[in-house]
Amino acid sequence: MTKNKIKLLIGGAEYPIITEDDAGYVEELGAELDAALKRTLSENRNISTTQAAVLLALEYADNYKKAVISADNLRSQIKDYLDDASSAKSKADWARHEAENAKRE
Questions:
Q1: What is the three-class DSSP state of 86?
Q2: pLDDT at residue 35 in the model
Q3: Cα gap 88→76, rounded to integer Å
Q4: Among 1, 15, 24, 75, who pairs with 20 as Cys (CB 3.0-4.6 Å)?
Q5: Please, is 52 exposed, middle or buried when counting C-beta atoms within 10 Å of its C-beta (0-12, 13-18, 19+)?
Q6: What are the tens digits of pLDDT across the range 27-74?
């Protein structure tokens, strides 16, 4: 896979990044992070850039963990629905088979 070299400007500092991800995608992430950092700093004027970055990291980690839990719950629900559908199909097949046997008799 091709490696992309990108320079991101986040919080006034430049970060050279080498990634296999799409350059536009990584640039978008950098822009979103920079905007979030600026917002956090403007809302909390008494904190440093490092403190704001740690707050953002905590927020992002929280969002990630909640997304993983939500995805796990959805997978579990889908598995339950598939199990229910399989059970219903088996019961329907059995009922059809019994109905055919009853017609033959």
A1: helix
A2: 97
A3: 18
A4: 1
A5: buried
A6: 999 999 999 999 999 999 999 999 999 999 999 999 999 999 999 999
Residues 8/14, Cβ–Cβ less than 8 Å: yes
| Per-residue pLDDT, 4 | 92
CA distance 100 to 11: 73
Task: Place 5 in a pLDDT band, splitting at 50, 70 and 90.
Answer: very high
Distance of alpha carbon 86 from alpha carbon 99, whole angstroms? 20
Rounded Cα–Cα distance for residues 71 and 58 (Å): 20
Eight-state DSSP code of residue 16:
E
CA–CA distance from 45 to each of 6, 12, 48, 56 (Å)? 30, 16, 8, 15
Give phi and psi for 47, each to the nearest 5.
-115, 155
